[in-house]
Amino acid sequence: MPEIQIISHRGHTAAIVAGDSAIVAQHVPDDLLAHVQAKALYAMQIQAGELPGPYTDADAERYAHTAASTAARPGTPTTNQRNPTLSASRRPARLTDTDSGRRRGRS
């Protein structure tokens, strides 16, 4: 059974990660969605053993800021805000947006 990781943003639950899946809360506004998704991806990579743990919110914030600055560099591929590129090499495998129930991330 996968470990469940709560992803918080400004004191509120923004997403829940379990193994290779994440559910992003409906109340997360579009302008914060990529940031929350990046924090969720960080937790997913820790759970997959791709990054050292344990998960801390401070480390997840640094990861999200690094992902945003990488995506903002000229020549870095980007996509729309509901399906952002979080890193040049990998997008979240299975992010679900609870307001529509549709899968986000890789098709």
Main attributes?
single chain; about 110 residues; alpha+beta; five-stranded mixed β-sheet; 2 helices; 5 strands
Outline the structure in words:
Strands 1-2-3-4-5 form a five-stranded mixed sheet, covered by helices on one side. The protein is built from two helices and five strands; from the N terminus they run βββααββ. The relative contact order is 0.19. The chain has one domain (4-104). The longest helix is centred in the middle third of the chain and has 18 residues, at 30-47. Mean pLDDT is 76; it is low at 77-94 and 98-107. Helices cover 31% and strands 21% of the residues. The radius of gyration is 13 Å and the shape is globular. Helix 1 (30-47) packs across helix 2 (57-71). It has 107 residues and is of the alpha+beta class.
